[in-house]
Amino acid sequence: MLSSLLRVLRTAGAAALCLAAASAAQADNWPSRNITLVLPFAAGSGTDTTTRLISQHLSQALGVGIVIENKAGANGMIAATYVARSAPDGYTLLVTTNTTHSANPYLLKSLTYDPVKDFTPIARTGDLPFMLVIHPDVPAKTVGELVAYGRATPGKLSYASGSSSAIVSGATFAHNAGLDLLHVPYKSSPPALNDVMGGRVSMMFVDILTGLPHVQGNALRALAVTTKDRTPLIPSLPSMQEAGVPDFDISSWQGYFGPAGMPKEIVTRLNAEIRKIVEKPEIKAQLATLGMDAFSGTPEELGTFVNEQLVLWERLIRDAGIEKQ
C-alpha cells in the first residue's frame, strides 16, 4: 500500500514539474504571435479610442501585432466572459472598465464570470471622467435649470445609457435631485449619443472623448462633470456637486486583465511595457486630448483597487435605488 502511494506521489510530482517547465518555456517564448485585446464596448467609444492609441505603442514594444476585437453587448458581459474562458497564455486580454469589474455584479441578476476569481490583473491605465450632456432643445443651460425644468414637467425628461457609468450616473442624478426620469438603455455609447443628438432622448452621461466633439459642434450642450471636483480635462465645467446635486462623485476607470492563471513572467512584462507607455509625457498629453487621465501601477495595486471598487459601486447602485435586471 505504502509503495503504491509513493509511486502515485512521485508521478504527480513529475507531472507538476513538467507543467511548470512547460509554463516557464511558454513565458520565455512569449510573445511569438499576435495578441488580441478584447473590448466590451463598440468602436468609437472612449475605451476603444484610448486603447487603440496605447496598443500602437504596445505593439512596437512587444514586436508583435495587436488586434482589437470589439465584443459589445450585455453590459460588457459578452467580452468579459469570452476572455475569462480563454487560455491564460497572454494572447487574449481584456481592456475594460468599472462596467464589467465594478458595477455588473450589482446590476445583473445572472453574471457569467467573476470579476476577481476569473481574471489576472495586469495594469490600470487611467480614468475616463464622464459629463452630463443634453439636447439643445431642452430649456436648460445649467444643472440647476435642468432640475427645475424636470421637477416642473415630471416624466418628460429621459436619459440614455451605453455603459454602467451612464446607468448609475443617470439613476443617481434622478434619485439625488428628486427627478422622474425615463431610462433608455443602449448596447454602447455611440448609438445612445446619436439618439440624444437626434432629440429622441433628452440627455446622457457620456465619457468626455465621445461627447466633447458634439458639444464643440453645438449638437449637444454640456452642463457638468460627474467627478467630485472639476477635471483639468475640461476645467470650465462644474462638477455635479458644485452645480447643486449632493453626494455625486462617479468616475470610470480603465485597466488591462487576462484570464486567471496567467504566468507571472508574462504579467510582469505586460505591466512594465504598459506603464512605460502611459507614463510618457507625450502619450499622457495625447490621452488627455482623448478625455483620459492616464496613470498606472502594479498588478497587485490593480487587484486591490478592483476589490475596493466593488464595495464602492455596490453602495452607489444601492443608494440610487437600481434593481438588478
Automatic annotation (TrEMBL):
InterPro entries: BUG (IPR005064), Bug_dom1 (IPR042100). Residues 1-27 form the signal peptide. Keywords: Signal. Gene3D superfamilies: Bordetella uptake gene, domain 1, Periplasmic binding protein-like II. Belongs to the UPF0065 (bug) family. This is Tripartite tricarboxylate transporter substrate binding protein. The lineage of its organism: Bacteria, Pseudomonadati, Pseudomonadota, Alphaproteobacteria, Hyphomicrobiales.
